[in-house]
Amino acid sequence: IGLRTRFPDLHIALFERRQFTKAGAVLGVAPNGQKAIRELSEETTLLSSILNEGQEVKGPPELNCRPMTVLVFWYQLRDILLDYAHQLGGNLSVYTQMELQDMTEAQDAETVTVSFQDTTAQKQKTTVSAKLVVGADGINSTVRRLMRLPPAVVSDTTSIRGTVVIDHNNKSLRQKIDGSLIFSHQDTTLYLITIEKNQNVISWALSSKTTNLIDDEGVDATEKILMLLGYHERDDKSVEEKEKLELAAAVLRATDPENVVRAQNAVMDMSIGWGHRPHHPCATLVGDAAHACRPTDGQGGNMALEDCVVLCRAFAKHRNLSRNNVKELIQDFEQTRLPRVQRLHKDQSDRAQLPPGKWVSWTSEFVDWVHQGV
Fold this sequence. Notes:
By secondary structure, this protein is α+β, with helices and mostly antiparallel strands. The protein is 37% helix and 25% strand.
């Protein structure tokens, strides 16, 4: 979107891998993320669409957050961005349900041939020639693997995110949750989240140091989560705690398995960043593909938005996409981003090591630094 807005003569192909399901949880678009969106779109329509779907909140007190972080269901954010990209049109082509297969440098050393295959039953293949490839394909990035960069390092926690679509059978669940509820038991925490502007969805996110939840599906997985939350000892708890656990159980049991995303949390080694590539000098990375960190402070998505801003700025300085200019563009982008990303990455890693309830507040100076953005 940023490149298409600033450079309308540039030919851009956007490939989206995911299917359009209501899976996952919410994303908090913080002030630095909102600032990035404003710069990328160069007008207010895109940000207004996101704010209209979301809900303004003040962050957890342990982070000393200011108001104006906006919670939005991540699939809604994805749909808003893709719709906006479609509306821009022109030299921006959008392909959905396409999975990257390979990248091959052309003989002229000026371009790279990128091969995709659709994820439908047809398995049709598409090939494009590009002067610059930007991988925004997440922690298990295929672009990163083809660049021969090391994969993410698996951490000691598991994340599971789900969405309940409200219908006449479970309408009462939505009425019992106003904003968010948090359940913690030993090393497992469950968040139930609702957004006032969307009465049809309950989102939940679970974090646990029990790592064998990834392969579990269906009823057994749900019951294992409830066991980790102390549900089966609920009769020994207070009336209020027991009611909360019953509500958590009802939400988990109402979740369609198709709307659940499981992941073993992992982080990128940021000691050298992602700029020291042994292969494919015409490619770079943004977001989790470049610098996935622990999801402790909700800045992962905002950092990805900042990446896009800095990449667009670098592009403006290295407009002629000759081979040497592409190398300089990528170096400019990565060297500019690395110090800020490394600082936040270290903070989130340090914070994740603290036991539940022992988090240390961000200082006002650190909050200002984060939210000031780029």
